[in-house]
Amino acid sequence: xxxxxxxxxxxxxxxxxxxxxxxxxxxxxxxxxxxxxxxxxxxxxxxxxxxxxxxxxxxxxxxxxxxxxxxxxxxxxxxxxxxxxxxxxxxxxxxxxxxxxxxxxxxxxxxxxxxxxxxxxxxxxxxxxxxxxxxxxxxxxxxxxxxxxxxxxxxxxxxxxxxxxxxxxxxxxxxxxxxxxxxxxxxxxxxxxxxxxxxxxxxxxxxxxxxxxxxxxxxxxxxxxxxxxxxxxxxxxxxxxxxxxxxxxxxxxxxxxxxxxxxxxxxxxxxxxxxxxxxxxxxxxxxxxxxxxxxxxxxxxxxxxxxxxxxxxxxxxxxxxxxxxxxxxxxxxxxxxxxxxxxxxxxxxxxxxxxxxxxxxxxxxxxxxxxxxxxxxxxxxxxxxxxxxxxxxxxxxxxxxxxxxxxxxxxxxxxxxxxxxxxxxxxxxxxxxxxxx
Length: 437
What we know:
single chain, Pyrimidine Nucleoside Phosphorylase, Chain A, domain 2, 3 domains, Aldehyde Oxidoreductase, domain 3, alpha/beta, 16% strand, 13 strands, Transferase, Pyrimidine Nucleoside Phosphorylase, Chain A, domain 3
């Protein structure tokens, strides 16, 4: 190492210098073992936030984070193993539909997901809205679940990429979360440690997402793909629009219910078109990347009932009660947000509805905040709908313990109503794939 002290290592990045792989490895593993204090790691994170990392530095950071803990051994499971990741958005329940579809096609999936923070939801919180569903599994239980049902969706295990957990906690309190190299290393270290051969990434873009602009999202997607290539993985990134909520339901149980309904079609109650289209696009890409597209199609896997049956298997394997898909879970209080005028819904502010759902109890401002699994917002008038004044645009679902008045106003203001209809905004904004494809 060129720097005899940690202070000099930090100063090098502060002064726009570069680190080699050995230096980054020594720093990250030292921090993970508790040999480097939080205040020095925080200083380095801020230096990275201000001055960035090269691709080579980011690859080395990812590798060191993987090396900080155990890796999931899926070698006993035949076939290409797939993982799917979303950067998060309002109403994003795509994982809940895509995983059963691909698992029904015989693609093994060990998916580790996170909890929600702020106005975007987390897959783990959504799954915990299913009575009895276990998200905390050991590595042995994860492998067993994939061998028995073809898929597992769970929380990150305690011994997988511990450096990422420590660094993320620091980023969250030091104003360094938005660093694209740090985001990319965090995402990809977990995917690589989980031993996925194929990594399918949905990068959300817009008001209701973490990445607000398309150039920013392209930068992140490109870096994610390059990290995967450097580690011998096949990676495909899809950039999808998140100015408008995805689907008609926002909130943990509401989103599970909507995803399940998409997997068992009802001609009298068709799924939201944009949600259906995104699920079909991403699932089709998963079939293609794992060489299953000639054997299966997304429409056949859904219409035959195979995808919904696979969802039931996954839920049962992790202790959940799939009967809830038939009985439902109604919230105690349901309050309408009504249209202030007649016309056509031309836009819906995803972030505003995400924040409304959060304040109703569906999300958390701090990591230790409790979540109401039944709270959220149910949209009745998606973009393109013709509405009359005082017609319900959405219903606010909550436990009755809070004053929903100000939240009703925010939801009303999130809907833009005009005299003439407007075309739907584009859904797929671009794709970036591994050069090896």
